[in-house]
TrEMBL record, chain B:
Domain of life where this protein originates: Archaea
Domain NADH:quinone oxidoreductase/Mrp antiporter transmembrane: start-end pairs: 133-456
Cellular location(s): Cell membrane
Name the record gives this protein: NADH:quinone oxidoreductase/Mrp antiporter transmembrane domain-containing protein
UniProt topology in membrane: Multi-pass membrane protein
PANTHER family: NA(+)_H(+) ANTIPORTER SUBUNIT D1, NADH DEHYDROGENASE
First-listed, main subcellular location of the protein, grouped into a coarse class: membrane
InterPro entries hit by this protein: CPA3_Na-H_Antiporter_D, ND/Mrp_TM
Family annotation (Pfam families): Proton_antipo_M
Keyword Nucleus attributed: no
Automatic annotation (TrEMBL), chain D:
Protein name: Na+/H+ antiporter MnhB subunit-related protein domain-containing protein
Transmembrane region(s): 80-98, 119-140, 146-169, 190-211, 231-260
Keyword Mitochondrion found: no
Organism: Zestosphaera tikiterensis
Organism ancestry: Archaea, Thermoproteota, Thermoprotei, Desulfurococcales, Desulfurococcaceae
Span of the signal peptide: none
Top-level taxon: Archaea
A cellular component term, taken from the record's GO annotations: plasma membrane
Amino acid sequence: MFLDPLTATLILSGVLAFTALITWFIYSVVKSNPTNVSEEFKEPYLAGEPTSTLSRIDAPSNTLFWGFIYGLSRKLYHYLRERMHSGILNEWGEYMSVYLGLLSLIGLLFTALILLRGG
Amino acid sequence: MIGLNSVGVLVPSLVGFAFILPLLGKLIKNVKFFHIYAALASLWAAILATYNAYLVFTAGTQVYPFGGWPPPLGIAYELDKLNALLGMVTALVMLAITIYSAWYLKDYEGVAYYYTLLLGLEVGLIGCLYTGDAFNLFVMLEVLSISAYALVGFYRSKPEAVEAAIKYGMFGAVATTLYFVGLVFIYATFGTLNMADLAFKLTFYVYYPVPNPFSGTFFGNPYVASAVALALALWAFTYKSAAFPNHFWLPDAHPEAPTPVSAALSGLVVNVGVYAIVRFLYTIFGPSAFVVQLRDAVLIALLVLGIASGLIGALMMVVQEDIKRLLAYSTISHIGLVLVGVAIGTSSTLNQNSLAYVLGLAGGIYHMVNHTLGKALLFLVSGILIALAGGSRKLDDIGGVGRRYPLVSLALFLGVFQLLGVPPFGGFFSKLLIYSAYMEAGMPYVSLMVILISAISLLGYVKLIYASVFKVGSPKVEQTTKVSLPTAIVLALGIACLVTGLATTYITSMMFDVVGSFATPQGVYDYWQSFFNTLLNLASGVMR
Amino acid sequence: MRFLKVRNMDINGFLFVFMLSTIMLNLVISLYGVFARPSLIKKIIALTILSDSGNVLAIAVGFRDWPSGWSPSTPPVLNVTSPKASDVVSFARVAVDPLPQALVLTAVVIGLAVMLFLVFLTLQIYRLYGTTDVRKVAKLKG
Amino acid sequence: MRLGRYLQAFSLVALAVLLAVALTYKGLGDLPNPAVRDLALWYLYTTLNPEVPNMTVMSPEAVTAIVWDYRGLDTLFETMVFFLAIVGALAIMRGITLNEGGEGLHIERYGLSLITKTATKLLVPLIIGVSASIALHGHLTPGGGFQGGSAAAVAPLLVLVIFSTYYVVFKLRLSELSMISLRTLGLMGIYMTSFATLILGLVIGVNAYIFQNMPKANAFIGLPPALGGSLISGTLFFFNLFEFFAVAAGFTLVFILLSIPEVKAREVLKGEEHGH
């Protein structure tokens, strides 16, 4: 069904065109930015534009798209970058051992199931 | 007879190449010798691995018993289509990486140590894939891990590199030790360590209650032992494959390693983790094993982890400033997709919708191969770009270097398209397979997640392309750097990426073949049958 | 549901069960040590305890209970170099399981090798960072 | 205490409970069990059994038989892990050595008192002798190449502590190069031994396997079980012998690396260029 030539061609060209469109759009958006370096604002580097663009207080109109994404996901990225990927081994260990605990719980539940069934 | 020997000879013979290298490093001062030596060793491995794959695809599953001992008594290498294929891909990509190293390491001391460790990595990789023995898998994982730790910390005076190595190594040692504890439970209850034998006891013994002549039956409660062993083994394997909560080491370790090693780690080492998961969940604790509820629960957990690591990898990729770190997060995202693909085989999917089952697994394996090619290519390209930009890994500093080197940029585009899933490339078809598998299985949300992950990661890839090709900056191009050798290698890999897409009809049917050889009840039965025939063949002269 | 039945629940049987529980507890405590201690050296020590607990567990699995007080279980070593069939049979009746011991031998060497390398890395960390506290060894993040 | 800490503690408790439940409900089988597993019985029956000449190791020591014959591949790669760990250590310490020559040093002025030095001189040959005996009787009694080698490495360690590292490197000439050479000798010996029967088989044109020791039902060749009337168990003796050299040299190398003064390491590391 998915290898039907007609469908495949349609999907292929559709996705190709869509990708090209997006690529062009993004390129046109980020092509030329006046750089206004202000080093005290160290912010995530969301898309192709240099760090300095993102750290401007007044976003230029053509980077509004990225500003939008960034505004939406500021909290998410704060959690991902500062809390989760903090680079401290012991904090990784917490996540890892919680996963080990999850697997142990699965094992325990399974064991309980088998024992209740009288295995 | 020669054919069977090639299965057994490949990995042990590489050991000798590595053993003698440190002494040669002390005696021979010409660096060129080591480049040629390592390339020859890799070539030898590539030829044998390709031949083995050919053998398996034409003559069926191959079993090589070491020492002539019938398998549960001794160790056997068991090659079915899955590990033969992955072994071939691994050996070929390692060959490319080894040749690339000759350019990368042009004037660096410690070259002999570097190549020794790289050969150790190759031994570990292929050994992990080929082995048919669960304890031997543990040993090979350690060979793989210790060479990986040492290679990550190769730039020993760079604080970040040593930090990444110890972070990787510390929890890596925990992971393999936990796997060993799991193996103790397996041996205690099943009385055997051979994978095919374990598969028999877990799947077919219920229907065919004849104890194995060497390993007997059960010696404990198999349900409980399976629960413990699977929990511990899965934790270890997800650590090696860098799935979500165990992924932390990857974005540190992969960028800090020497670039060819980053390519090997990102493209190949994580595959071994996924391979081990697949081998455990589809062959040993196979689709019709009696611990079916446990298996289902674990697979659902794996699906959730896969989606989580896909999303987190893609999200984190978007905000990176370091080209290699960006690629490392992309690895996490793609391993997530592969796990989503291989997590489809719950009992309900198998029974109600075998098409989805095959599609998902084929997509997962296909995507694993595609990702290997694409990611190795991108890391090698990043090495060229970094060298041209004067050694800085920051995307800002690379600033459009690629525009002056159109062939390098072409390779970069090929790799990005492969990973992004642009139509004529393999990545598209494998993602499509995973997508349609979950549509077929009646889980459209998972399919949407696959699209969402690709969409988010698009931002990251666009950033990569923009920074390295389109950006108008003034990078300090090192004019003296000659890049013809690495360009040839990355172009070859790029063509391989293109081929995985253009030959998709052929490759997809081959992937269905591969899935049939390890994941269906019939495939598991054949896997056991080859093992048992070897056992009978070897024991017949003695047991009468 | 049958609980662990220890043959001849005497002092030896009690000690055996006690040892097994201790190993299990040791596994988890050393795991906590690796995950939560801040010093790399402490982590390495905890790792040693973890792998040794696993090894002792394997040895315990291969242990053979005494068939009777007069024929205790023996090490898996024949004490004649040209045995008759009866020698081999009586040897196999009392010797403990040699496979876990061989596995442990392999695992011990591997654990030692990994530990050796981790110690070198920690030494190098100390040279470069001046500390082995993982909360301070965190240049890489995000 | 943050939430993560609580979850961590809870998870580890869950693991402990799982292990305890597994122990209680026979996840490890009956413990202790008066019987052993079938596989173990096979090992015990065939480790030294002249009645089944096609299926024996001809070694009374079942553990060594498993380590170097039944599961010899594991041990080859175990050796490789140890080898790679030392190569990793060498790679970390590359370029960090003691000063060349050591002419300006009064080596005899370093180290502990005369009494300890004399006692060490008496002790070292004994250590070497005992450890060689452990290694060479590995196929007959508990012990083997690794155990003998690590015991033998105590001798250079003792000399290192009591006489100083300069004595070891410049007087005894146990330098990095000589240790690597000895180690390569041992490792290549192991490598060659594991392929010996296969190569023999290929030369005379019969079926043979890697790591084959005694003749098998479908591979009729093997190494001699006894030499001059004393049991050597085919490849086992050679494996133990070479492993002895490899391990002793490997540990000595590690001790030498660890005893290099910290000042030298910092000198080399300071301002070193590194790649990307």
